[in-house]
Amino acid sequence: MAFVMTDMDRKTWRVGVAGLGTVGAGLLNFLAERPGFAPAGGRAVVTGVSARSRTRPRPFDISNLPWFDDPVALARSPDVDVFVELIGGSDGPAKAAVEAALSLGKPVVTANKALIAEHGAELAALAEAKGAPLLFEAAVMGGTPAVKMVREALVGDDIQSIAGILNGTCNYILTEMEAGGRSFADVLGEAQRLGYAEADPTMDVGGFDAAHKITILAALAFGCAPNFAAAEIEGIEQVDLLDIRMARDLGYRIKLVASAERSEDGVLVRVHPSLAPLDHPLAQAGGALNALFIEGRRIGRIFVQGPGAGAGPTAAAVAADIADVMTAPQRPVFQAPAGALEPFKAVDPSKMTGRAYLRFLVKDEPGVIAAVSETLAGAGVSIESFLQKPTEGAQGVPIVLTTHAVTESALTAAVERIAGLEAVLDRPRLLRIARI
Amino acid sequence: MAFVMTDMDRKTWRVGVAGLGTVGAGLLNFLAERPGFAPAGGRAVVTGVSARSRTRPRPFDISNLPWFDDPVALARSPDVDVFVELIGGSDGPAKAAVEAALSLGKPVVTANKALIAEHGAELAALAEAKGAPLLFEAAVMGGTPAVKMVREALVGDDIQSIAGILNGTCNYILTEMEAGGRSFADVLGEAQRLGYAEADPTMDVGGFDAAHKITILAALAFGCAPNFAAAEIEGIEQVDLLDIRMARDLGYRIKLVASAERSEDGVLVRVHPSLAPLDHPLAQAGGALNALFIEGRRIGRIFVQGPGAGAGPTAAAVAADIADVMTAPQRPVFQAPAGALEPFKAVDPSKMTGRAYLRFLVKDEPGVIAAVSETLAGAGVSIESFLQKPTEGAQGVPIVLTTHAVTESALTAAVERIAGLEAVLDRPRLLRIARI
């Protein structure tokens, strides 16, 4: 409780920044523009930088900053009090440098979702053993403070579920596909040319980035160790323009929804292309926006929306974490001390229930719809809505239907039976209707 | 930076709770249900309570808790480490008890928006001089973490403006007026019977509660001392069902919008019934919901929405603050140490510009509309849209118009000139169109 502001005014925090990509550049710009950045009475000064290439052209001058070829050496430098890791990647130099800083008891600020989702529990144990804060606000939703909300502001509640749009690239692609009536490949190619998507887009479009983020939020919300390996992940590569149109006819928009739910059976973390009702805030969050619902037993539903990426917002989140370090909080990395985190008990996803959307082609002949209906009924799946639309020049007739709530195992069995019908011409496309 | 979790596990924080209304009851229930509440490694135990009446029937048992007739005595008790003030009111026992606790260096958690908005600067100075945290998450938006977002999560940005719906009672009344086609007095009376509105509803419907909240957010966002006296305040008592309907015809919904903006001229804090476009998230936040937009130079726009009141959410916010106290943060009460807060430089509201809605009755005779148009043009006010609707059995014809952006002084002058026209039968009703 010692809180002597006059002492704090004098305290200078020497910051080492490893990784000088978009976010690193944003952070250096921010600290250069705000030399007196002192929200907690302290002052932050960059005393060292590290990146893959020293000479790569950059929109800012690093010639006056001490350079380190090795981020681990930067983390260990006696001139660095706070280590900021913006290298990325779950292993390799990012992990080595973070471990080096924490081992010396130095606070670490990182934007690295893969690192925290995959190694969060062991890093939390190291951080707490050494008395060093480990903060990662920028890892989830960029500048929109999801991490602080869940970790700090909602600890007076029991969070039941979280669901949201956590990957701006996927949201941009899905929004453009619908708006322009374009294919996934077409929009992705354009996004890559414009620099909105990576040359290797797998992390984003494969759902892995969103899965890293929801894994972190689940750990914070439920007080369990993060367990990326337990996440169910499906990306947007298979989302067809036809499904976007059919879903819209049924009153839905397809979004990549990341969700985490806690039940008596354990925790279920999922990333799926999902149907959200058109008037739902998640359906209305377009472009590169991120959006998140948090549902707690006492608080009810909280919704937060904002930019999920970009140099400015993400660097602002890193700066907020640096300010937090200055306040010397004695708070565990996740919701509870690392040793007291509940083991992550994954729910068997086959036992989950939910509504679904199915789309498949059938032969244009009598009795087909009856056969489909009977097959679904026989598998215990009840139809909620049914849509048959003629399409020009198609081989067969596309059928789209939505189901009432059904267990995942019954749904999977029903899909297999339908796929086996003689009158069905392709493998049914299965999408979940979001429980939001 | 000392952070020895094994020591923290043993730390027990003895909590004194003054005020046992809805929120106090929610807090005692929460701590009774979660005896091990230890998100930061510490443990919270209630060691004393105080309220106006010891014997009033309550939905929970306080007979086993030490009782204090005087909240100041509770604040000073050697058995209390953290003082929770839930009495309410800007002065009187609430202020005296908070000052008593802070003077002894004890952390204070309060839900009292009036106290912080009206005396925040002097309490911050006392808190910081004594090294005691002063936290008030529950004072704004109940369980929705607006305070922590602005004070902590967004310090890496320059916030330009904040605007939102901060009073659930007003939002409920306006929503019910529109949904049921009922008058303000009718809905208010029902809300009072149901316990949704106070017997004396002035604080809520007069806009003062929302003004307290936006005053606090403005101080946090802009790093200035809170200045409740500078807030421009208009309540919803004069909102007419006719205006709600006319606004809807023009594509707007009337909401009580609280806003704070910073410009080179200073800070403008306002609470007004305002027109929000129907498809805007603020227009869509119905019932008792609270909703807030925060706009920053780097982060862009962040939107957060959730329950603004209620025992569960508000008590959860108080509990989150108690958890924060356990982490012993060395953070100033507002955005900067009390001595470094900028003086609140109020902008002259007559210089502000914005769009407006005007409604008045005119005689049903030729030339009236021309006269109104010429009068507005002469005052420098440009008409954006114009609506004339016959109403059954009315004395005269109601005219509704919206203006392009205009200075407040030109607008006021134009209203006076229109009121003076011979063909105008009543005083024009002026509402602002929200800048959101």
What does this structure look like?
2 copies of one chain form a homodimer. The model of chain A is unreliable at 1-9 (pLDDT under 50). Chain A is α/β, with parallel strands linked by helices. The two termini of chain A are 42 Å apart. Chain A folds into 3 domains: 5-139, NAD(P)-binding Rossmann-like Domain (Rossmann fold, 3-Layer(aba) Sandwich), CATH 3.40.50; 154-307, Dihydrodipicolinate Reductase, domain 2; 350-433, Alpha-Beta Plaits, CATH 3.30.70.260. Chain A is 36% helix and 24% strand. Chain A is elongated, with a radius of gyration of 24 Å. Chain A has helices at 5-10, 22-33, 71-76, 92-103, 113-130, 146-153, 168-180, 184-194, 202-205, 208-222, 241-249, 281-284, 311-326, 368-378, 408-419; strands at residues 12-18, 43-50, 67-68, 82-85, 108-110, 134-135, 159-165, 232-233, 252-263, 266-277, 289-296, 300-307, 353-354, 356-362, 383-388, 397-403, 406-407, 429-433. Chain A contains 15 helices and 18 strands. The interface between A and B is large, with 67 and 68 residues.
> What separation lies between the terminal Cα atoms of chain A?
42 Å
Mean pLDDT of chain A: 91
Helix content of chain A: 25-40%
Name of the CATH architecture of the largest domain in chain A = 2-Layer Sandwich
The coarse overall form of chain A would be: elongated
Can you tell me the CATH superfamily of the largest domain in chain A?
A: Dihydrodipicolinate Reductase, domain 2
Q: Name the largest protein-protein interface in this structure.
A: A-B, 67 and 68 residues
Q: Which structural class do the helices and strands of chain A define?
A: alpha/beta
Low-confidence stretches of chain A: 1-9
The value of Rg of chain A in angstroms is 24 Å
What is the CATH class designation of the largest domain in chain A? Alpha Beta
